[in-house]
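Could you help me review a protein record that somebody else here produced? This is what I was given.
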Amino acid sequence: QTGSNRQDQKIGDLWRERTQGTLRRALISPHPVRAFLGGKLLAGAIVIAGICLVAIPVQSAFFGVGPLRLPLALAWSVFSGTAFLAGLMWIQLMASSQRTAGILTSMILFPLLMVGGSFFPFEIMPAWLARIGRATPNGWALTQLKSILGGAVEPSSLLAALAGLTAVGIACFLLGARRLARAS
């Protein structure tokens, strides 16, 4: 399988479950749709946490970041990653077919990754492109993470960022659950 196909399968598991009939059975269970979608989101958060538990200490050791900054960096990474996952789930659920969902998420995800500092650091981008990249959701989260790791994070700024991210994540989750309930 190509990398793109594997990526579509990981993000589009709700569509695979719909095609295979698993989703219909889950939706008619006595548990609310939010519990089903919340379980998927929790599983994603656990995977994100596992990756961050390895990546952040390795990065910290490589760049000489103090160990006291690691718990906050880990919490921010898992929290922001889970909120973004909720957004991607909602986008997947808004599509009319599995193929459309895969194309839609790829059309959104790959440009954000390219410009948002995930593939190329802001420091090597032209200034105008770095400004745009820092305004993307992943660029904004990366800028916050750099502030945390660099020890330059302002508590009030971080609390405002957490509040905003919480609101967006909850909204995406609830909209996704509503869409999933209507699609059944």
